[in-house]
Specification:
By secondary structure, this protein is an alpha+beta fold. It has eight helices and eight strands; from the N terminus they run βααββαααβαβββααβ. It starts with a strand and ends in a 5-residue tail after the last strand.
Length: 238
């Protein structure tokens, strides 16, 4: 398995100095964000080792350390809580602003739309919200991403996609008004990344955009190779 790191923009013109500088700036920003969250990631790793019963908890008493018996309690509680949300029936209610027949009709339409979105996301992506809840229970942070995907929309499909981001690969920066930027890090196969970028190229408006040569070669020679993808989000770019 081969692992490569690549910062967004995932597609960029290799001959355009300005956009190459942009990639460098984004890479430096994401490196700084993940460095700031290093201690938090260490805490997540320690909790996961305990919850997933990879290690046994221990207690420190005066003069010595005592190993305790492994227990599945934490893991069982996470599973039980997650299964509750999996089996629960979801209902949406949009409150009307006015007591009129037209307002009732409009709110009913919104409720049906929200319910339909859940069905589409579940059929296409799986139990995304359940996965996010699992991360929240196990790691203390739940990250549910939502984004408009122009490639899906160009195919006539529902253009909103949703994903449960592993908090172990999520970093952010905030101010008093909310988030200013965020970065994600995920491991996917080279083939999956190649086809994602190929789809984006089909709707790109600039002919200078291209898929990096190393990624195209890797996707064909070793399609299951692990590739580390870093994405950066702020008010101007993804």
């Amino acid at each position: 398995m081969i692992s490569q790191s690549y910062a967004v923009p995932l597609i960029y013109p290799q001959t355009n100095r300005n956009e190459s500088d942009e990639v460098t700036l984004v890479r430096r920003k994401t490196d700084a964000l993940f460095a700031e969250f290093g201690a938090y990631y260490t805490e997540i790793d320690a909790v996961r080792l305990l919850v997933r019963q990879t290690i046994a908890p221990d207690e420190v008493m005066p003069g010595k350390r005592i190993m305790t018996v492994q227990t599945a309690q934490a893991f069982a509680l996470c599973l039980q809580t997650r299964s509750y949300f999996d089996l629960a029936t979801k209902q949406y209610r949009v409150l009307p602003e006015r007591n009129t027949r037209a307002e009732d009709k409009a709110t009913s339409k919104l409720e049906r739309w929200l319910s339909g979105v859940d069905d589409i996301i579940m059929r296409r992506e799986g139990l995304i919200k359940s996965d996010a809840i699992w991360h929240g229970l196990e790691s203390g942070t739940m990250v549910l991403g939502t984004m408009f995907n122009p490639y899906l929309a160009a195919q006539g499909k529902f253009g909103i996609e949703m994903w449960a981001q592993d908090p172990r690969g999520f970093a952010w920066e905030r101010n008093r008004h909310g988030l200013t930027c965020a970065a994600t890090m995920d491991q996917v196969t080279a083939e999956a990344v190649f086809y994602e970028l190929e789809g984006q190229l089909q709707i790109a408006k600039r002919s200078s955009l291209e898929i990096p040569d190393w990624l195209a070669q890797l996707a064909h020679s070793d399609p299951l190779a692990a590739v580390t993808i870093v994405r950066y989000y702020d008010r101007q770019r993804e």
